[in-house]
Amino acid sequence: MSHLFYQGRGRKPVLEQARGVYMWDREGNRYLDGSSGAMVCNIGHSNENVLTAMRRQMEKSTFGYRLHFETEASERLAAKLAGLMPAGLSKVFFVSGGSEAVESALKLARQHALATGQDSRWKVISRTPSYHGCTLGALAVTDYDPLSRPFAPMMREMPKIPAPRAYLDGLDPDDPETGRHYADMLAAKIEAEGPETVLAFIVEPVGGASTGALVPPAGYMERLREICDHYGILLIMDEVMTGAGRTGAFLGCAHWGARPDIVVMSKGLGAGYVPLGAMIADERLVEPVLDAGGFAHGFTYAGNPLACAAGLAVVEEIESQGLCANAARMGEKLKARLQALMQRHELIGDVRGKGLLLAFEFMADRTTKAPLPRALNAHDRFVRIAYERGLIVYSRRTRDGIEGDHILVCPPLIVNDTHLDEIMEGLDASLAQFTAEIR
Ligand code: PMP
C-alpha cells in the first residue's frame, strides 16, 4: 500500500535515475522525457553545473528567512532576471512555484490599485479555457472545467474572454484582422464589466496545458497592450510554462515585443532542480506599494538560497549553452516533422506551437473539427501507449477541459537530431497502435 496520493489511485513506476533527456525506473526501463516532466526540465536532468552550484550553496547556507536576510544567491538571480526582462521590469519577488507566482501578481496588482487611489478596480479578466494555477486566487482566473468548477462557490467569479482559437473558428491566424477580432473581445468585456472595476488581464503568450500550445494570431498581443493602455489596466504575462527558453526566446512574449506590467515564471526556472517561481514587476507598480506601507503578501520559503542558487545556474546554463536558439532550431524541425506525421495519421487534426512548446490535437474529422468521442479518453490513452514504448508526452482535454484531446510534445531544450528521431519513432508507432485500438 502506498501512503502517497495525488490525482488518482494509479500506481506509477518508481523513478531511479535521470540524465539529460532520459529517465530510468527501478526496473531499469528507460524513458525519453518528451514533455520535460510538465514542461519543467528545460535544461535536462542532472546537469552537472547546476548540481555543483547547489552543492556550493549547501555548504554556505540552505535557509535565511527573507525578512531577516538577503542572500547573495537571491540578489544575483534577481539581477540576472531583471536583465532579461522587457525595460522597466526590474523588481523581483521570489516564490516556490507557478501558482504562488500568479497569486503574487494578482495581489501586487490589487495593492497597486489601492496605493494609487483606484480602489474600485479588482476584476482580473482571463481567457477560456486557461490554466493559471490551483490555489484559489490563481484558480479564480483559471477556466479549465474539471479543475476549476468544483471550487466555484469558494471563489469570486472573474470575467473571461475566449482564447483566440483561429483554427477552430475557421479564421486565418496570419491575418492581423484575426488578432484584432479576438483582442477586441477584451475591450468589449472591459466595457461590459465597467472599466473602473477592472484591474488586470492575465494571459499566457503561447497557451500551455489548457489550449495546447496555442500561438496567438498576428496582431493579437500588440492589440491587447493597446487595449490595456487605453483602459489603464495591467497586463500580467503568465510565463510559467513559456518562460526560460521554452518557446525559443527567454520569454515567450518577446516574440511579439510585448510590454507586460508583470511577468510570472516558474517551471523552467527551477528546471526540476528546486521549487522556484518568480514574479517580476515594473518598478512603477512596486514603488507606490512600498511607499504605502509594503506588500502585504509572502511565503515562508520565498527566496530560499538553495532554490535561487540553482535558478541562477539554470539561467546561466540556458545562456552559455545557447538553449533558446536550440529550442527555436529544434522546435522548427520537430514541428515540421509533426506536420509530416499528420499526413500519415488522419486522427491528427492540428499541429501547433512555437519553439519546443509543441502540440498536436486529435480530431474525428479534420473538416468539421469534431473531437474524438469523449468516452474514448484519447488523451490519457495515447499517453499510456507512448509511455509503454518508453516515450513520455503530456496530454490534456483541449476543448474547455471536457472534450477534445491534445498531446504536448515538449522535450528538454538540449535535444539533438538523434533525440528527435527517437521521439518521432515513438510517436509514429504509438499513433499506429492508438489508431488500431480505437478503430
Ligand atoms: N501557470 C501556468 C501557465 C501553468 O502552466 C501552471 C502549471 N501547469 C501554473 C501557472 C501553476 O504552476 P504550479 O503548478 O507550479 O503551481
Describe the structure.
Belongs to the class-III pyridoxal-phosphate-dependent aminotransferase family. With 439 residues, this protein is of the alpha/beta class. It has two domains: 15-47 and 322-438, Alpha-Beta Complex (Aspartate Aminotransferase, domain 1); 49-320, Aspartate Aminotransferase, domain 2 (3-Layer(aba) Sandwich). It has 15 helices and 15 strands. The protein has helices spanning 36-39, 48-60, 72-84, 98-115, 136-140, 145-148, 166-169, 176-193, 220-231, 267-270, 283-291, 305-320, 323-344, 378-388, 417-438, and strands spanning 15-19, 22-25, 30-33, 89-95, 123-128, 160-162, 198-203, 234-238, 262-265, 277-282, 348-354, 357-362, 391-392, 394-396, 405-409. It has a seven-stranded mixed beta sheet, with helices on both faces. A hairpin with a 2-residue loop joins strand 1 and strand 2. Helix 13 (323-344) packs parallel to helix 15 (417-438) and helix 14 (378-388) crosses helix 15. The two termini are 37 Å apart. Residues 38, 97-99, 102, 131-133, 204, 208-209, 238, 240-241, 266 line the site of 4'-deoxy-4'-aminopyridoxal-5'-phosphate (PMP).
List the main descriptive attributes of the protein structure presented here.
439 residues, alpha/beta, Aspartate Aminotransferase, domain 1, 2 domains, four-stranded mixed beta sheet, 15 helices, 40% helix, globular, binds 4'-deoxy-4'-aminopyridoxal-5'-phosphate
Count of discrete structural domains: 2
Helix/strand-derived class? alpha/beta
Task: Tell me, briefly, the overall form.
Answer: globular
Proportion of residues in β-strands: 15-25%
Provide the low-confidence segments as ranges.
none
* The CATH superfamily title of the largest domain: Type I PLP-dependent aspartate aminotransferase-like (Major domain)
Note the total helix count: 15
* Largest sheet strand order: 4-10-9-8-7-5-6
CATH class placement of the largest domain: Alpha Beta
H/E series, N to C?
EEEHHHEHEHHEHHEHEEHEHHHEEHEEEH
Question: What is CATH's topology name of the largest domain?
Answer: Aspartate Aminotransferase, domain 2
Name given to the CATH architecture of the largest domain: 3-Layer(aba) Sandwich
End-to-end gap: 37 Å
C-alpha Rg, in Å? 21 Å
Q: Which ligands, by name, code or SMILES, are bound? A: 4'-deoxy-4'-aminopyridoxal-5'-phosphate
The counted number of beta strands is 15
What's the main sheet like? 7 strands, mixed
The helix content is 25-40%
Rounded average pLDDT: 96
Organism: Salinihabitans flavidus
Family: Belongs to the class-III pyridoxal-phosphate-dependent aminotransferase family.
Keywords: Aminotransferase, Pyridoxal phosphate, Transferase
InterPro entries: Aminotrans_3, Aminotrans_3_PPA_site, PyrdxlP-dep_Trfase, PyrdxlP-dep_Trfase_major, PyrdxlP-dep_Trfase_small
